[in-house]
Amino acid sequence: MWDNRIEPLSDIRETNDKILISVDLPFINSKDQIEIYVNGDLIEIVANASRSIKWRKGISAGEAFETSQYEKRVRLPFAVSEDDIKATFKNGILLITVNKKNVKKRKINVY
Amino acid sequence: MQEKNYGNVTIIEFEQIPRGLIAVEGFPDIGLVGVIASSFLIDTFNMKPVAVIKSQFMPPVQTVHMGVITEPIKIFGNDSMLVISSEVPIPTSLITPIGTALAQWLSEKKISMLISLNGYPSEKRIDENEPHVVAVANSLSLVESLKQKEIEVLEEGLITGVFAVLMNELAARGTSAVALIAQAFENYPDPGAAAVSLKALSKLIDLKLDLKPLLDKADEMRLSMRNLVQQTKAQKQGVENPITTMYR
User: Fold this and answer.
1) CA distances from A56 to A2, A17, A53, A67, B107 (A)
2) What is the tally of structural domains in chain A?
3) What is the ipTM of this complex?
């Protein structure tokens, strides 16, 4: 949780040439409700739900609050530019594809 | 109240259970398809708890509803159907004991058939407005019935989990069992997949179901079930996903 925002469920997978980030966004009906920011190796996702959600901090009990905002921050193992990222929103799931092709390999000398 | 012990598993009945009912199983699994679908059936048909399943090897967890503690694994029923569901994931070490005990109990109750509702993980689920459903059965004659009802049968594959044990144990006792397995999001609660599994159930047993209330509540369920889906995912880590490698 980030203050009174809900951290959505998410999953990160890596292939040889991509990192795939999926985020579950209930009460988000349109891509226009989603904002994605990139800053170096940090991807920040903010989404505004179509209604307010009553939420309780902690797994089973805790302080209750109401919010309509989701926030998720994902730190990548390398910096990316906006050209390396593609995002789609379908069936309630945001899918962010990060292209690894522009990540340069660096040779490490063996001594 | 009647208590029956099956090895490490105890089933406590607190209502008379008629013979010949159809039983539906929906333990937590991929996309929580079974949990969502069974919860919809319980609400729709106003079913009451008729029994609980306990084991000394279950984690020390009780669910709380309206301030009162209850057992997390329950069997609900009415005069035509039993629905078995759990509000906690089944620990890997209890999958076989619970499956075996439940099969024995269901055979004693002389159920007409068990139908298990489950999900299989699919990366293509995101592109499907109407997820795909396949079925497996515990006898060749049931496979023929599924085909006659135009329900696609999984010809080759692997299934794992309580329902795999249940189907096998019921076959050994001569009781019919079918699993309806819907393409689902692996990591998120998937009411859409639950809806298609219920659609297949309705086709299989000629049950009239209005699925609109389920789809109307889909977003609410996706939020309210996020803890259970995370616990189920953690529980399944290290266990092979069902029907992934051989599905075609």
Assistant:
1) 13, 38, 10, 10, 42
2) 1
3) 0.83
